[in-house]
Amino acid sequence: MVATGAPLGPFGFIDLIGINTAFNVRKMKADATQDPVKILTVKRLKEEFLDLGKLGTSSGEGFYQYPNPAYKDKDFLK
Fold first, then answer.
1. Cα angle, residue 69 at apex, residues 28 and 17 outer, rounded to 5°
2. What local confidence, expressed as pLDDT, does residue 28 receive?
């Protein structure tokens, strides 16, 4: 965020597009490659987010809680 001046970082962006979208993209890649790291990522996204209803901004919680995510705090990167 500091280097690019972006208003949010990668996890904030994933919350914005939806963790379910990130899950679906990652799952297609994991299924196609059978890469153990990708498979683990898919498993964790499902268990730690999707199964708990944490979809990102649309559900009010993902990597951050909304409407006031931590990355908007002026001291977030300190």
1. 25
2. 98
In 3D space, the residue among 44, 55, 43 whose CA is nearest the CA of residue 19 turns out to be 55
Task: Take residue 57 and report the two structure tokens written for it.
Answer: 């901004």
Which residues fall within 8 angstroms of residue 56, CB to CB, at 6 or more apart? 14, 15, 16, 17, 18, 19, 20, 62, 63
Report helix, strand or coil for 27.
helix
Identity of residue 38: K
30, 39 Cβ separation under 8 angstroms? yes
Chain mean pLDDT for the chain: 95
